[in-house]
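Please, structure for the following, as tokens.
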Amino acid sequence: MIKILIADDEDFIRHGMRYAIPWEDNGMEVIGEAGNGEEALQLAVRLRPDIVLADIQMPLMDGLELAQRLRELLPETRVVILTAYGNTENLTSAIDVKVSAFLLKSADSKKILESVIKVKKEVEAAQASSHKVSQLKDIYEENRHLIKGTLLSRFLQNQVSYSYFAKKAGKIGLELFASSYALALIRTDSTDEKLVLGSLIQHFLRFQPFAFFIRDHHAIVILNTEEYPLDRNAMDDILPGILPVTFGNSIVVMRDITSPEEFPLVYTVLTQALEHCFWNTGQPYTLLTPEQRFSSDPEIQPYTYESQLITAILSRDSGKIQQQLHTYYSYMEEHKCSRLLFLESVKRLAVLLGAVSEDTADILKINALMEELETPREIMDLIASLALPSKTEHPAHSQIAPALHYIHQHYTEDIHLEDAAGAAYLSPGYLSRIFKAETGYSFKEYIHRLRIQKAQELVCGTDLKYYEIAELVGYKDYKYFSAYFNKVAGCSAKEYRNAHGRSSV
């Protein structure tokens, strides 16, 4: 409904226009009346009418002055001027203040209605256009990080020039005026992009980050470090907050970058570093400066060591196998080969083991399981479990039973694969392999599902608040609890409680 305000110092004219013209039948309603220009202006500011019908001659403020003030304060409001005299001076003044129509009071109600309907159509057209613009703005805001991410991804991979990037960056709100930057590349095992981005934004906020995006399970974070340097103390402080969304030794950071023009080269270095820092098991992140580089893999030739290991396996001599496992691993560790090359090598070993092993079921699963292991030692433990003669006749589930018991006793705590492996007297790598084979879930996923299962019981069986339940089942951060609850249960905790008969808390 289009809203109309009538302003005229003569009561009978105001009332006549209000009640003699079928406004509502034509999609309009009169929301107020005013007896002078100042009263009309106050009402208009408060009621925000779409159209004002104003007499040109009114006390305190005439119709033309009112139109001028409304144009300044409420530019979307249209003004229709009514006058008893259609002189040229009044018409010229009305044009100057951009009124939408100029009518004689002597015109009949039909004529006035026809003129106002024309103005109504203008209002509706403007509102429709404004709505479309608003929708486009909303869509843009919702997808702005994707737009930023796409532009940055293309720039980092040298698909567009720096001049093109800088020109487009200014239009989408990327600030490029700092004197110092840092670029972080983080491998993540989470499939929840919003969860990952939310965690990164929260914990890197002090560095005024101007860009985040995720590509192929890698988060790229570009930070403004002009005010706060990103040193080891800062990283140690940030680390606990972002570890839940990372994968193994998977954080490499290049600091002291002086120009965005360096970003593509830095990105290339970080990509290489992330593969080689796979061996950095003592520290879950690697902090670099622009002077540091990493050697490439072509000089590494593990085939001889793979052959020697297979020869030892064929001998079925545990001592020889263990010695060759140690020799192979020491060679790969010494050369700090990339994660990719190491995985390629151990997968070749798995294929060769499959050719000489009677237990082919494990070999068929090895490649998929390998990708989920976080450290070189875990991967090597997995190979060792396949290479060494079996020491047990018991089925796999009897081996993981102590680990499962440990998890169920400690699921509210911050437990790790090493903790459960110690409880079961198994290596972490071997436990990871048989754990997923037996339960169908990775170690981390199993814990999350157990926690959410316990949370569901509390949601349905208690009146505890949702954040209290989150803390009780082991989530220190409520947003992580909320995300995993939705993922596992298929709905929010509130929706789950409502569906099972509990009142919302």
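The CA atoms of residues 369 and 433 lie 6 Å apart. The longest strand covers residues 28-34.
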